[in-house]
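Collaboration report, partner site 2.

Our partner group contributed sequences for two proteins of shared interest, and the home lab folded both. The records are reproduced in the order in which they were received, starting with the first partner submission.
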Amino acid sequence: MPIYRFRIYFEEDESVYRDVAIRHDQTFQDLHLQILKSFEFDTKHRATFHRSNDNWQQGREISLERYEDRAYRVEPLLMAETRIVSEIRNPNQKFLYTYDFTRNWPFLVELISISNEANPKLTYPATVRKEGIGPSQYGTKSILGDRFIDVEEKYDLGAASEGFGEEGEEAASDAETEDGTDIPADDEA
């Protein structure tokens, strides 16, 4: 049973990529879901593949579904109905993959190898290699991940705890009472 290995590059930074292994008889929907999983994206948005050539030009579309608000020159194939093997035209086949049409996450998908032996330890499709820190779907991502947010919130000191009011002035409790009368300094009391 042939196993295809695709390299999925984040288009804006080709040093960030994931390698996904998938059986020849699995569908583009299986590949779509594995790409999202490998880049830690959710599955809430629209997506499409386009068969491509060596110059990364768009060819036949393979869409998650038929979208009524999009104009098609040719009806797209559907991911759930289209097997991977049916769209492989050469040993270096390329696809363009776009996720979330609002944010427009672009990925380059390239067939990098074909093997005739499945790894019995893997459940296909599977992410078999990760390089680089992937983009964060909804915000910033760091090496610390979500733990960084906890550290930042824990040590976020407000203006009152620093002893200053607005614009670096002393807090009102240090200089005057609420009615505006001055508080005598320690040496005046």
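Second partner submission, folded after the first:
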Amino acid sequence: MSEHEPRRVRVAVVFGGRSSEHAISCVTAGSVLQVIDHERYEVVPIGITSKGRWVLGAGDPARLAITDGRLPEVADEGGTVVLPSTPGSAELTVCEPGDVPHAIGEVDVVLPLLHGPYGEDGTLQGLLELAGVPYVGSGVLASAVGMDKHFMKLVLAASGLPVCRHALVEPGAWESQQDRVAAEVARLGWPVFVKPARAGSSVGITKVNGPGGLEAALLEARRHDPKVIVEEAVRGREVECGVLEGRTGAPPDTSVVGEIRVDQTHEFYDFDAKYLDEEHVALDVPADLRTEVADQVRAMAAQAFRALSCEGLARVDFFLRDDGSLLVNEVNTMPGFTPTSMFPLLWAATGLDYPGLVDRLLTTALARPTGLR
């Protein structure tokens, strides 16, 4: 670069992580690395291994794709990347075993493409706040609340938004208060969905058709999170809406509404249906909805975004019941982000293509300060 050429914005793309959604985070990162405007942005790919070590990645999208059913992962090789510990200095350091640590330069913004705990749940956001480094997406509070299905429902309900009936199973409750827990779940009616409270991508979720399957489902959910939530099964359609942070002081922008349709091959929209089976799943964008229903979904999505104090982006998922009423299912503060994921498809149908969406997220993050706001 000559002295007269403008410096490219330096973006640290962070992916992988310690959660059960490690592979999906890698797929998301590979997709973003393919489309990001390399004339405007200089990318520093940083992978986090499944054990939590930060490594300087190669940034090869092909290595981050699902190939023949094989899920990608961050290889535990190379030097360890260290974030700055002093606010105002965004210089990254790489520590190689047996060598003197060396700086690899400052970054202007971090794009944290992490799903699940230890990344999407406010932990990474807190680290970046301490370092004073701008980043894409929601802050500590919204990320933490959005990750925890129990507290998310409490906040949404307190803001006047309808949510499905549910029961919380706290760590150790099944062993010490089995009758009480079983009775609370039974009051929801059968079937129910048993879920890890702080996980995504349908990992660890079981549909339970009667009391006999409850204990096994709780044990499966607790493989991913000691805190479990049990939700009623809602009859109806699954619709989703994308939300982007508006300009300062302006309300958030909402996308067209999409619908997920899964055939009888899958009992519900599970992990395989989301990522490995394109034949039996359809994403209708836009959804076939009456205008007034779509408008209501978009208004409620914006309300949910504000209720959690979200920033940057979110995907809000709904149930449209057979009687025409809507329930907010979840708010995803870092939704799936491959070109075939619902969030980019929604915005493409709204008029913002995938590269433009990435650019808008980075531009929004660069304009926002860290710290209290």
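Feedback sent to the partner group on the second submission included the following. The first strand starts at residue 9 and ends at 16. The first helix runs from residue 22 to 35.
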